[in-house]
Amino acid sequence: MMAERVQITEEKLLSDNWYILKRFTFNYLGKNGKWTTQQREAYDRGNGATILLHNPQADTVILTRQFRLPTFVNGNPTGMLIETCAGLLDDEGPDDAIRRETEEETGYRIESVQKVMEAYMSPGSVTEKLFFYLAEYSADTVRNAGGGIDEEEIDILELPVSQAYDMVARGEIMDGKTIMLLQHLRLKQLSQN
After folding, report:
1. Residues 161, 166, 167, 169, CA torsion sign
2. What is the pTM of this model?
3. What is the SS3 assignment for 141?
4. Which helix (H) or strand (E) holds 6?
5. Is the dihedral of CA 82, 134, 98, 48 positive or negative?
6. What is the 3-class SS of 32-64, one letter each residue?
7. Strand pairing of 48-55 and 85-88?
8. pLDDT tens digits for 162-178?
9. Helical residues (DSSP H) of the chain, grouped into ranges
10. pLDDT in tens, 118-170
């Protein structure tokens, strides 16, 4: 078992300013039978959930656009990123958390959600696991203001699915979780035809 091959010998808090950054020193038993001592940093921001809202009658999706500093400092000239609604679990189960986040960010009150997968998005440095969902909405779906809470400034975009696919191809949608959910929807639609 892998747990028998890893022995954490030191855990040091480096920062708890926004989330938690720790440095771990550990002994690792390699396939060659030799132990080595290694150090890695891990950023713990908690687990999260993301959702793609799809209107099958109109064949549209709801996406969000907001400023993301890490993309700005890594070459995104505006820092604005188009993405699926997402947020941290905040001590809730993933299903409840994504319903809450959906209403906070988009305004849509969604009751029925379909979990489609779980994934570690950046496992080399971030502990977060994301829970991925699809949900349907329609013109009759209850909708409040949305736009996020506190300092969030979230634009809500309703786009034809075909336009969203084209935006991925042109590099206008560059968020991994969003691309994964759009591709999942595309595969689902293809399998139904």
Report:
1. positive
2. 0.91
3. coil
4. strand 6-15
5. negative
6. CCCEEEEEEEEEECCCEEEEEEEECCCCEEEEE
7. antiparallel
8. 999 999 999 999 999 99
9. 69-73, 94-106, 161-169, 176-192
10. 999 999 999 999 999 999 999 888 888 777 666 678 999 999 999 999 999 99
